[in-house]
Amino acid sequence: MRPIHVAIVLAIAGTLIALVACGGVRASATTTSAKPKPLAANAAVVTIGRPIGRPIPAGFLGLSIENNAILPYAGSDPHALDPVFVQLIRNLTPRQSPNFRIGGDSTDWAWYPAHGIRKPAGITVTLTQQWVDVVHALASTLNARLIMGVDLEADSRPLAAAEASAFERGLGRSIQALELGNEPELYPSFSWYVAPNGHGVKGRPPSYDFNSFIGDFSSFAKSLPGPLAGSATGAPEWMARTGQFLAAEPRVKLVSLHRYPVQTCFIRKSSPQYPTVAHLLAPYATTHLADSVTRFVAVAHSRHLPLRIDEMNTDSCGKAPGVSDAFVSALWAIDALFEMDRVGVDGVNMHTYPGATYQMFTVAQHGTWSVKPEYYGLMMFAEAAPPGSRLDSTSSRNAKGIKIWATRGADGRTRVVLINESRSPRAVGLNAPTSTTATLERLEAPRLTSTGGVTLGGQSFKPTTGTLTGRSTATKLDPSGNRYVFSLPANNAALITY
């Protein structure tokens, strides 16, 4: 069931307190309670219904990292991984094995040198045994499952086989699947490398189409160990042929697709795909983005295969400063992830690498990290959607402008996320068939375009630990007539747990 857009008006209720964080990340404190204010006549009333859909799988929220970003993030010593990076991953995957997809554009720029193989002109990334050892250490430390990209664009079967063999030797059981190529629909359109004469050289001829790709995939797959993932496409016309791809490739055990809501490639500013704050909050960027993969989820599940959106973030084909690096990306991330769960997607890997506008964190010299706004949104989603929880149906009245998501956890607790996408503060009355005290945690920033000043429960990330620090401002809510009454500031989000 699709969530309800809710709109409301109101005043602040409840007393600020400190809240113990999920996954051992949050600072502990003592809570106090206050009697909630009566519900205003014009407030929105939200009611949570029954659980719907399947349990959210462990590892649903994953990361997609370019292979040339591994050492900058994790460090170059497999015996001394960067502890902040490890902690930042654990924050998003408490009590579960994280899912890593290592690849992206760099999938088709990389090789693992082997005897008798000549380095192709388009290769810019050399994977070494040290690199493999760091990936292995990272996977072992986190008990992670890996989707490893293998170069297809180089059009060299020996090169792909050597790369895959190095992964198998060094990473072993951590590998969930090998993903052959990255967005092959772009091979005949974008240059793979620039020749000495200044001319761009494309990875495939203009005639390269989906049938050509299937031929390539089948030919390369013969020399690769399994299981395999694919088709790693982001093109709707190629996704529409997912059934044909799976029928031709029985060794594919993981269906992988890519989704971005906005972009700057060949897009006019008037297009809903152009990156703006308003466009990123529009249904096109969340609800419609998820709806675009619904039938492919059904195709995969009919073959008893999982489907992951193993590369997703705000914008593709360029940079969108003031959008992808701003607080609006945190609100988008929460909503988009819940939408993907709504349509049955088995997992989403949020893409990041140093230098990307949408990067979720950066590391400077001496191990000082900076956590970006979008990461805070991922943290709230991780708290609101623990493994085994199921989406609850929701209903509301007197509502417009707020997205509502609710889950019922395996621990019996209900978690409700409200995202106020309007410009006005809202008053909310949340009906709950319980007399227990709830907690209210806010995700806040000064403005949607803020690139700093973001807090989750009043706390922010410490640059040298990757943990939240500062005095928690989570609120303790006592029900009044089986209803929680609270305020929701404009352009902010809240998580209520009871």
Task: Provide a descriptive summary of the structure in words.
β21 (402-408) and β22 (414-420) form a beta hairpin. It is built from 12 helices and 30 strands. 23% of the residues lie in helices and 27% in strands. It is an alpha/beta fold and 498 residues long.
The proportion of residues forming helix, as a percent range, comes to: 10-25%
The computed structural class is alpha/beta
The chain-level mean pLDDT equals 91
Distance between the termini: 22 Å
- Based on Cα principal axes, name the global outline: globular
Low-confidence stretches: 1-34
Largest sheet: 12 strands, mixed
* Number of H/I helices: 12
Features:
disordered N terminus, alpha/beta, twelve-stranded mixed beta sheet, eight-stranded parallel barrel, 30 strands, globular, 498 residues
Give a quick summary of the entry:
The protein has 498 residues and is of the alpha/beta class. It contains twelve helices and 30 strands.
Topology:
Blueprint: E1 5-6, E2 15-16, E3 44-51, E4 61-65, H1 70-74, H2 83-92, E5 99-102, E6 110-111, E7 125-126, H3 129-142, E8 145-150, H4 157-171, E9 175-180, E10 191-194, E11 200-202, H5 210-221, E12 228-233, H6 236-239, H7 242-248, E13 252-259, E14 262-263, H8 277-281, H9 287-291, H10 294-302, E15 307-312, E16 315-316, H11 328-342, E17 347-352, E18 361-363, E19 369-371, H12 373-384, E20 390-397, E21 402-408, E22 414-420, E23 426-431, E24 438-444, E25 455-456, E26 460-461, E27 468-469, E28 475-477, E29 483-488, E30 493-497
Parallel strand pairs: 3-23, 4-5, 4-17, 5-8, 6-7, 8-9, 9-12, 12-13, 13-15, 14-16, 15-17
Antiparallel strand pairs: 1-21, 2-28, 3-20, 10-11, 18-19, 20-21, 21-22, 22-30, 23-29, 24-25, 24-28, 24-30, 26-27
